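[step 3/7] fold_predict: job queued, chain A
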Amino acid sequence: MRLFFAVPFPSPVSERLADWAQRRPLAGARWTFDAGLHLTLQFLGEVSAGRLAAAREALSALHGPPFEVAVQGLGAFPDERRPRVLWAGVSQGADRLAGLSADLGDVLRAKEFVLEDRAFSAHVTLARFRTPIADLAGRIEADRKTEWGTFPADRVGLFESRLAPGGARHILVQEASL
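[step 4/7] structure written:
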């Protein structure tokens, strides 16, 4: 099973982003709203069923008080000239999310999970593109600094990602409160 750890989004912020997406059709975009918006902390990838208990234990090792997250702006990976991913950023709480990601990474490495070797970037994936689309920068310019909403990050979930032809589905496996 494909597993990842994330802070889930509340409905009001998701709905505001979904409303924006409906008003701005992007050819070839595979929107991620149906899978459930979230802020990924650590991606494990394929994990055997026998290792699920260790992943659950890692989740229960997280500690810390809840904190506010503000979602703001839009951008693209790897860049806006050849976008593969459209994302919304985090303007408040990014440092706390990075700390959670690092703490979780330490616990997971101690449990002998192999993690991705890339810097943490606090963002929510809104859409993926098989083929880069032209002029994404122009299409998102007006909303580059839009404030999408704030919410309390008060829980972290362990999710299973099930791939399907229409896109991934994310199923909550376990959740822990901060």
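[step 5/7] annotate
The longest strand covers residues 67-77.
The chain is about 25% helix and 40% strand.
exit 0
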